Amino acid sequence: MEAIGKLDGSNSVNTAHNTINKAADAVRPAVDRVASSAHSAVDRIADVAASAADTLSVRGAQIRDAQAKMTGQARSYVTAHPLATVGIAVAAGFLLSRLFSSSSR
């Protein structure tokens, strides 16, 4: 009787292993599809991020170029018209002081 009990236990274990193996085999294609989709999504996100970084780099260079151009133009104007520049600076300072002094009262 003891041998039959061991045999039944062994059959139960084998049945459980077979069931688990069948379940694993059935799930494997779904897991592979999900993993493939996840890899594709990560690749697309990486491509978008790289494109955005390239665009920001180009825009930053354009802004630096524009700043350098405007600084050069301002320097040229100040050199060519020193008295007008001082007059503009005095007028701007006066207007700003009136604006801020009237708002603080």
Give the topology, please.
Elements: H1 2-80, H2 82-103
Helix pairs in contact: 1-2
Report on this structure.
The longest helix has 79 residues, at 2-80. Mean pLDDT is 87; it is low at 1-5. Helix 1 crosses helix 2 (82-103). The protein has two helices and no strands. The protein has a domain at 2-74. With 105 residues, the chain is mainly alpha-helical. The chain is rod-shaped and about 105 Å long.
What's the gist of this structure?
By secondary structure, the chain is an all-alpha fold. It has helices at 2-80, 82-103. It contains two helices and no strands.
Kindly state the percentage of residues in helix: over 70%
Strand content: under 5%
Could you describe the largest sheet, including whether it forms a barrel? Answer: none
How many distinct beta strands? 0
Number of helices: 2
What sequence of helices (H) and strands (E) makes up the elements? HH
Instruction: Please state the average pLDDT score.
Output: 87
Structural class: mainly alpha
The N- to C-terminal Cα distance equals 105 Å
Cα-atom radius of gyration: 38 Å
Q: Estimate the global geometry from the Cα principal axes.
A: rod-shaped
Task: Detail the poorly predicted runs.
Answer: 1-5
